[in-house]
Amino acid sequence: MKDSTRLVTLGRDHHTQATGDTADFVNPPLVRGSTVLHDSVADLRERVARRNAGADGPPVAYGIYGSPTHHAFYDALTALEGGYRSWAFPSGLTACTMAILAYVAQGDHVLVPDSVYFPTRRFCRDTLPRYGVTTTFYDPRIGTEIEALFTPTTRVLFLESPGSHTFEMQDVPLLAAIAQRHGAVSIIDNTWATPLYFQPLKHGVDVSVHAATKYIGGHSDLLMGTVTSTERAWPRLRETIHHYGLTVSADECYLALRGLRSMGARLAQHRATAEALIAWLKQQPEVERILYPADPADPGYALWQRDMTGASGLFGVVLKPSITQHQMATLIDGLQLFGRGYSWGGFESLLIPTSVERTVSPLPGTGPIFRVAAGLEHASDLIADLDQGFARLRR
Ligand SMILES: Cc1ncc(COP(=O)(O)O)c(C=O)c1O
Fold first, then answer.
1. Architecture of the structural domain at 262-394
2. Which residue's CA is minimally distant from atom 9 of ligand 1?
3. What is the pTM of this model?
4. C-alpha Rg value of the chain to the nearest Å
5. Looking at the domain that runs over 3-259, which CATH code has it been given?
6. CA angle 170, 163, 387 (to 5 degrees)
7. Residue range(s) in the chain whose domain bears CATH number 3.90.1150.10
8. What's the 255 CA to ligand 1 centre distance in angstroms?
9. pLDDT tens profile 306-329
10. Residues with C-beta less than 6 Å from any ligand 1 atom
11. CA 63, CA 66: separation in Å to the nearest integer?
């Protein structure tokens, strides 16, 4: 089946399990709950034994293991990613941090790209050392030279491709293969590509993480992170999830699954709008460079074309070094349609100045940078808004 058909059909088996009715509603029932009642002691023991034997789906013994609503979403995501199991977390950040924690212990070492989402970086920089875990940040464009950064204690290679502010593509299959040779687990933040356009586990990665807050939710009304892993990587992840008691509400899984249904159609529009904005931006004399791996002029284009089947609507704009931060703020401050707000992947366009921390690799330019999340408004209205912004900057 093609992707659009899969988005519509995946995760629909749980409805009948929940209600016993075969002529069922299209959407899963919203099953909230902590307590699950059992018919007998034998039934209770059987459900616990099932879980202890590795079962993750319904029937479960307690709400923390997920209701049919949770598992409808998990099943759909697992199928899209081509993984073994998935789970949801209260935010994209928790999914990143807990995925790393699952595989490290005192004395271990992790490798993280310099371009990583800042709060993930901060966790590695400030929190992991408290548990005796050290981090080496590496240039995201690194290739085989990463070999030299592995130590006997390296347990995790973290990837984010492309980086969500500076948009460097990583050679994911190469890096994942090297991690595997060193006995390390590879974890990727796959949020930009979405599970539709890149399936990292098929390229040798062990764990794929999403901020479902972005394109999966798609409506800026959900905070959620997800992990999907291979069978080999799942036991440690599962143990961490259950030992820390990590779960989200059924309402959130309901929203995430609803978001998935329309994600393909939304992404096509986000990309078309991004490309229209990029074509216009490239004509502005103040623009030095566009950061968008699906643009043939981007240094990451060859990797994007090789590994991904599509692109989302988030990109960066590097202004000429002669433009000041103050001038860029003048452009941004008067925008009417572009919101000045964090996050991305919702229906609304957003535009923020880029500020990142780098320690081992250069920024993609010396001028000010801003990031655009192309929403679902009409491109010509967005261009008119930008046009006025550039006029303000020139004044
Ligand atoms: C690439 C990336 N990963 C993870 C996150 C974290 O997601 P959340 O905001 O749900 O914690 C973000 C949020 O902006 C992000 O851009």
1. Alpha-Beta Complex (3.90)
2. 92
3. 0.97
4. 22
5. 3.40.640.10
6. 125
7. 262-394
8. 17
9. 999 999 999 999 999 999 999 999
10. 91-93, 96, 117, 164, 189, 191, 211, 213, 223, 225, 343
11. 5
